[in-house]
Amino acid sequence: MTKRRPHLLYIAFWYPPSRASGVYRALATSKAFKDAGWEVTVLTCTIEYLSTVVGSIDLSLIDQVPPGVDVVRVSRVTDFDVRSMTRLSANLPLLWSKTRTQMVGVRQRLDDLRGGDPSAYSFSDGYLAWIDPVVNSGLRVNSAKPVDHVLATGNPFSAFEAARLLSGQIAGGFSVDYRDPWTIDVFTGRTDLANRGTREAEHQIVAEADLCFHVNEAIADAYRQLFPEHAKKQHVVFNGFDSSSLPPVRSRRTGAVRFGILGTMNDKWPMDPIFMAWNSVRDRLPSGSELVFGGHVGYFAKSTGQLVEALPESTSGFRYLGPVPKAAVARFYDELDVVLLPVPGGPMVTSGKVFEAYALGIPIVCVQAEGGGARALLSDHPLAICVSPEPDSVADALLQAARLAHDLDSKVSSGIRFEAREFERNASLRPMVESIARVVGSQGP
Question: Coil, strand or helix: which one is 174?
Answer without folding.
Answer: strand
